[in-house]
Batch of 2 targets.
Target 1
Amino acid sequence: MSVNQLDPNVWVDKYSDYLYNYTIVRVNDHEVAQDLISETFLAGLKSKNNFKGEATERTWLISILKRKIIDHYRKINSNKGKAEVRMSYSDDESEGDWLEERVSDPFDKTAEDTMENEELGMAIFSCLDNLPEKQASIFRKKTIDGIDTESICNEYDITPSNLWVIIHRARKGMADCLEKSWF
Amino acid sequence: MNIKMECHEANHICDKNQYKEAGFWEMVKLNIHLIYCRACRKYTARNMKLTKAVHDPKVKSVSAADKDALKRRLQQEL
């Protein structure tokens, strides 16, 4: 098995979307997510020499990001000084089977639904990562960034029919990959 | 106009349609092709699903400007 290498120059292009989708579910704030991601990259850069090559670059970055998210919550909790909610009863009689004590509500699926959709974002970007470099970047430009055919053709110096062949292959690859992990 | 067409042509129109770039007659021809071609029906269904998934509002991506900012910060440290 080949040993994984780090290449910080491509981090932003390759992983920022994936990391962003991971972060935004957990912090729910665009600014904070951006900051956490840039901190993650910087921390990764600093501890580059500790990378043993046993995990992939992405796994390694995610593990740093996890720490950063935990740190973020520690910080805001210590600012507020009330991290937990306590419940107390005024007298013995009101003690009993209270609705508030039941943690999960089987009919309230919304939180779970959001989680699933957010995982879709990660599934898409990890599939995109599996495609060949050129297919991935052209597919991303065309589909996600919505750049028109002509400017992509100029940028890569290809003809429109070339572009459509690449798009076709990329779509096929994406559909196969998502079929395994998502659909 | 030739109504019949081959599958690779149908797939190409289907790909274009995902970006709303297929013409009206192309769509007519594609739909006629789909009536009798099971393989292309399957391809089209999968293709539509992929488009829907990618355009799901919950799928976030970092804007180009934000990416540039990230890159610049990273470059400073390199």
Target 2
Amino acid sequence: MTQKTRDDQTLKWVGTRPIRPDGVEKVTGRARYGADFARPDMLWAKVLRSPHAHARIRSIDVREALALDGVKAIVTGDDLPEIASEQAFVGEEPTDYRMMSQNVLARGKVGYVGHAIAAVAATTSAVAEEALGLIEVDYEILPHVLDAVSAIAPDAPLVHDDLCDRKGEKKAPSNIANEVEMGHGDPEAAFASADFVIDRSFTTQAVHQGYIEPHACLAEAGPDGQVTIWCSSQGQFMIRGYTAKLLGLDLAQVRVVPAEIGGGFGGKTTVYLEPLAVALSQRSGRPVKMVMSREEVFRATGPASASRIRVKIGATRAGNFVAGEAWLDYEAGAFPGSSVAAGSMTIFAPYAFEHARSHGRDILVNKPKSAAYRAPGAPMAAFAVESVVDDLARQLEIDPIDLRLQNAAQEGVQSSFGPRYKRIGFVETLEAAQAHPHYDAPLKANQGRGVAAGMWFNAGLQSSAAVMVNADGSISVISGNPDIGGSRASLAMMAAEEFGIAYEKVGVRIGDTASVGYNDVTGGSRVTLATGKMVVEASRQVIAQLCERAAKVWDVDVERVQWADGKATVPDDDTIKPLGLAEIATGAGRTGGPIQASASGSVRGVGMSFAVHLCDVEVDPETGKVDVIRYTAFQDAGRAIHPSYVEGQIQGGAVQGIGWALNEAYVFDESGRLENPGFLDYRMPVASDLPMIDAVIIEVANPDHPYGVRGVGEAPIVPPIPAVANAVRAATGVRFSDLPLSPPRVLDALDPAS
Amino acid sequence: MSKRHVTTTIDGESREFLCEDEQTLLDVLRDVLMKTGTKEGCGTGDCGACSVMLDSRLVCSCLMLAAEAEGRVIETVEGMAEGDRLHPLQQHFLEEAALQCGVCTPGFLVAAQALLARNPDPSEREVRFWLAGNLCRCTGYDKIIRAVLAAAAEMRGADA
Amino acid sequence: MTRLPERLFSLARVFLPRSLAPYTGGVLEVELPGETIRALIAGLEAAYPGLAEKLSGQLAVAIDGDIVADPYLEVVGATSEVHFLPPVGGG
């Protein structure tokens, strides 16, 4: 399925900034998100969560809770079917359905504070809450382990006593759930030939995706076995698949209606509530609604792994990277599956190394199961490697962008994760940053400038889209991917471009699981790219049909008919009056019936996106507070379909990274209880913390996409942490190796005596 | 336990509702009156998604008991547009692409409207500090700030 | 004289994940005939019994730099480079 990339000269919509189709309903409060659905006679359900980091559940007594007036159903782990071990792939985090089921509702053992133990459905949420207090759980408290270093110590408590399959080999049980190794050449030998070698270790804490909308769903199970779920997620098909798997239902019995989603960033690529709501609805015979509190969101969903990363890079005096080696330990949480494989793949990806090796370990600890977070695994890896590259530039006295250009990955170079690069835009992105006025702007006292780079893949995966011609000549597009950041607009623009009609004549709807073919999640920077490709393909099929219908009307050979500017024409006979879309559509009943097509595929030709960020900070020597005072982010978008939403992705990713660098961190007490499960103490950036974020779009077209698109959603969170850290290094002379760069930590480093 | 009867004005309409003592105004707006345009992001007054105007003062509706709404005038995002005509803030949020997922947008719009009511010509810094009580995780705030400044300029022009 | 199609003489270069070295006696790069990923996996299994099962969990390959998930029927060019990779998704 190779499609020719459309020529810029002929484009009418691509590259413009129309208002998104779902805009008005979102600024008027009419858009319906996960918690905005209700059904007559609906129950409310709440979840009982573990107060212990690690404990055996001896017994659960729900009798008193069930007897409470208004309580209609309770489920515990015993009520869910036992699931066979089977590999699933969730976001960037490999997992196992058996483990997923145990995370949704604990069986026999709890693995972290906040682990779900039981769910209660009652007539009001207050009654459900009261009932939770009446459930008696008898725990045998077990020793717990809270960080990767302790977890791999020889006498560490085992998070799972039976988990020993790693690298495909049966080994003695341990908290190392998986190991990966990749790279080429022989770095160990090559370091000997380097003039300079820098070898440093870095740590990062768990952080939350921080979507503003808590997880929420409404489920209704009928007496006939049919189930409907309304919920917000990054994929209605994902919710259907996982819920059916965990409850032993047929997919055809389950319909998932996608709500608008109030942010996901990878954290809504799995299930937490939906199987519980369905099980409670099955037992009570009534619709069941569940909404997490913010505290539950922090304790029981999300976080990106805490990490420990050691990076070693050797370079020649002239600045050529000779060899790189990295060791990455990521905390998976209480179940296997951190993003360490992706971290190991991306850590050296921006550079051309003759010798590269990364060693990753997925480590179990008694903390919430980690989840995918925007470019999963890559930001912490970039923090480590880009800090070392910055130090090398300083030591070699080479401009940091020159050093990166000198070693930049480009077409034909073997990547550190294996394959040779196809056409990528890293060099162009670095050059744009170097040429930008920001790079040379003067700085004042206590200020510093940092530069950092990063990359993320584009996922192709499976997509479907349907395109229908309406009787008035307007076009309906159905996508199966929730629209998190304007993808309805980009899909409508590509369809309008294909048909040669006005953008306003294209309606885009997000279909439920019964109204469009299967789609993998909205994630992996893939919707505009991959689902967009399916919209283009379905549109082209429809246009072929429109040409056939026109040929029938005119009674000419279809080969003579061409489609241009929303009309069928016969270029070799100007006596034939062109037929517009509306005319063909109105008469469709006479020429063969409704005109529509759908396209589905495992999408190939997906490319990848590189980003380079410039960050200026000012460090207050009195308080240690770091302010970002100027920020410019450059990224190769291939081709920006709707530049405003591309800029938005870049700006949003940059700010999430700034938060990760400066403030955000999960803080646990010794018992394993999260001490900051709210936005007051888990401090995400607010408007007054930030300057404008200048987004500069570089367009090195992806040759395998009809419009040259590269997915842009994730790469922008990769460079910010090292960009901030390198700026702080420039401002203070101190290299920070541990996140976050919060005022007390910075102040300590500036004045160790204080 | 009997419920409390409350009479209030919401988005220009007089409304009556029954509530429990412990229910917040946000609970009643969303779950009793089914006005779900106002969002809950945290329930602790930290994110601003539930912002509403109470007698022309900006409040987090999650921090206020519904019973306290007796006799008060409440304005939510659902009352901002006049029929089909969007408020300039709503229009500029669309034109500047100031929303991605959109769940924080109702709170930002209400808070920004409150700002412009008291300061029709805010600086970028003033907008940033006024909106510091509203969390957005998608946009990095850049386009939100630009949209508010653009709406303020248009509204000043319209007044002149 | 029968002339064999040129295809029979062309070989894809297959790169295995380092974690599989124990199953191949340390070999990580193999030249194999085969027009699809499925055929390459069959060839690997013939050379190193048991390897196909190990690769079944590997859900992605890069064929000449183009990363593909669930690639079993993907066509491999006459002189393609094929890398088996951990699956790549995203957040």
